[in-house]
Amino acid sequence: MRMRRGSLLAVAGITTSLALTCCTPGPTAEQATSTAAMSGSAPASSPGQTVEAAPTTSIIKDGHEVIAEDLEAPWSVVFREQTALISERDSGRILELGENGATREIGVIPGVVHGGEGGLLGLAMRGTDQLYAYSTGADGNRIQRFDLIGKPGSLALGGVTTLLDGIPA
Asked: Looking at residue 106, what is its pLDDT?
């Protein structure tokens, strides 16, 4: 699965709601080339969040600018400052997206049980050092808080606190 510029991913809250995803068409190859050539243009962002423009060495496939490849059931995206963190529903992994489109695993949520629409679902950030994860475990769904340590390029999950568990799946 690929993640494409132009995709709009809603961030899951710390409640029992799931992350919602909806796709919008991306630019044509001609538009992407024109946009990359222009200086000072940046993709749209959520209020209060800054997103830097992608490097000009991007790849255009099927009329979309590819910003990450080889993701396994990506489900939620949050930003720690300007660094995208992506959850993979089935593997329970959280990945850091680098400026060059490469992904790096920052941790695996322990005890994630995937099946159907269950697994690692929503992510949310509080400040720059607390990551919240909504996931399915053996005893139902749960909300956990993780310390997020390090800097971009070396982020890692730290200690975990389960805030709520046994939420019916």
From this structure: 97
28-35: Cβ within 8 A, 24+ apart: 28/63, 29/60, 29/63, 32/5, 32/58, 32/60, 32/64, 32/65, 33/60
Beta partners for 147? Answer: 130
CA distance 34 to 38: 6
pLDDT digits (tens, 9 = 90+) for 5-60: 433 232 333 222 333 222 333 333 333 333 333 333 333 333 333 334 444 456 78
Model pLDDT, residue 131: 98
| Spatial separation of the C-alpha atoms in residues 47 and 45, rounded to whole Å | 6
Q: Could you give the C-alpha distances from 146 to 53, 62, 96, 101, 162, in angstroms and in order?
A: 29, 37, 15, 25, 9
The distance of Cα 100 from the centroid of its chain, to the nearest Å, equals: 16
Q: What is the mean pLDDT of residues 74-95?
A: 96
